[in-house]
Task: structure prediction
Amino acid sequence: MKKGSTRPGSKYYIAKDDIWEQVKHCLCCNEPILMVDHIKGSGRLNFDIMRRWYGMGYENNDPMPDWASTTMIYGRQYCDECIRLNRHNIQHQEERKPFVDTQHMRELLYVVREYLGFSKADTRSTFDGWEVCERACYNMRIAPGSIWAIEVKGAVADLLDYMRSVKRISFKSKRPGFPWKIDTKIIKGKKMINWSFLLRTIHQVWHNEIKDWPVWTLNQSKGVLPQLIRHKAVDENAGDINRGQLFDRMFTHMFDGDVTTENLKTLGETKFLTTIGERGKKNLSKRMREYHKKYGDMAVKCPWFPRRPRVIRQGGAAKADPGTYGNPLYENSWEFVNAFQNHVFGDKTPYRYEDYVIQTQNRNTSLKTGMHSKDSPITRDVGRYWLFNYLCDEMHIEIDEDKFPYDSSNSVLEQFINLDARTIKSVPFGSKIIAGILMLDEDRVITNKDKHRTKGIKKVVEKLWPDYKMEHNLWNNMLKGEKRMNSLLNRVMTYNSLTYEWDDALYIPTRTGKYAFYRHSGFEMKIDGLCRELGFASEGQGDYHYAIVGDGEYWEKEIPACYDGDAENYLEYRQELDAKKRRAMKRHGLSPIYVVLSIYACPVKGVHGHIPQWNGKYINDDNPNKIGLAETFDLQDREDIGDMIRDYYYNVVKMTKEMKRKLEE
Result:
């Protein structure tokens, strides 16, 4: 038989002038049947309508499958009048059928249960509701080959044959609204029947048997639950997730009766909920393929787990179209995890909200570009929890949380003070939490740069305990010479009503409000001190700026792999960075002031010429090889600041000493 279609260019296309394919004759009355009447009677023109006209194209000599009907194979063969008369005959045949034997139906269903491999349960039907629903979910969502229904053969075929041999009205008279229609489909060459048919039959033979079954797990895309509701086998709200059933099943089957903190952490991860709830998709992204590889076994183990939009609310299409999934159980994954652990452990829950924010929420969720800083989940309480339970544990810091930092001794504080920014960032989840801590009390929109900010422990403590008054000389890990230099400059600037900034994590500010950085590494350029009003930046030049010996923590460092310059050792690399830093300071309107702290000092190309070592005082003393702080500024063309230092020394420091001496006399 020749195939045909109404779309030109298709392999089913039939030319309009091919009259033999547009007219058929009824096999019963031999009256002509026109294709145009067939199309008009269907109300629309599409591929399925034309396939019913032409059939599937089997030749006369080809064997017809036993699951196929003659209409399916050869297309339309009877006119409308003969079809009407045939239906009338079928009705008479239906009336002659015997009534159903309920006991025989039960025996057939017992055999079907054994045939499908279900265990015998202590119920009226001997079917275990969870076992049946779990098998149906597995077939609908994960089964290889997408065979999502029950194949009609063996005991299943015997059941259907018996049901076709009895009156359809027999059950209908007892249970109104339950049609005895047996719909089978051909899927990949196999005759299949929907899972809802088995559940409806069980419900019909043992009334209300499936009422307490977890049929909400069947709320998938294969139409099982809608058919149960349409045929009144279950209530209209049967698709609502039963929290008690869900949590009990998760406890016994997902976590095998032993829920750990790590399990709760995993349960709150979006990728976990997405993987076990959204299966069967093709062309997955690389990230989703990784998730499936990691959690694929759990997806097979728990096919009954609901889809993610039914458990927690999410953005995108699912949020814009709530009718697709209805109202989810919880607003976010934390509410879901917390409800589950409350169900399992009661009031003694092992997983805290702070742990959830720190461990589970990724950086994009915690600090999303465009999010307002007030909406960040990293609050002051979360930051303090991370410091006490993650930073202290990782770095073996002994601390009394109730006293810190107000009543802590210097020996306790020094455990924190000696931590540099890189060490803090290496603590688990340190990068994300520090970025969130630095956004506290900042009423603005978060930028992409904010998500990568790095500061030392001093700034972290200042943000977490804003009313704590720090002793500035104590709360930094600068070298002793750098601390003294900044301490003296801070006294001078404060005396002149100016602001002097100094910190172990201070960077060169740019004209655009950002920070200057090295192009090869992306790291910000650090400086030791800064006075924006006078436009200068101070740099204490220790031993490691001039030699490969001396004090400092940088000697064991190597040139980073991202560097592509000409430096052959770390000293040359360090001096090249100093030169780049000087150019950056000049470019952004700052005068670079170098205070030499090393006995190995020498002129460095691109950085500074000959500058004597600082004597550690405000002005010159009797040592001809060293100079004072004021003279250091004079030597670098900032006599105005040198005069301010001398003025402070003579009018404050020296005057105070003279007054003290006179008072003692």
The mean pLDDT is 79. The chain has five domains: 19-94, 99-239, 243-350, 356-464, 480-653. Residues 243-350 form one domain. The longest strand covers residues 501-507.
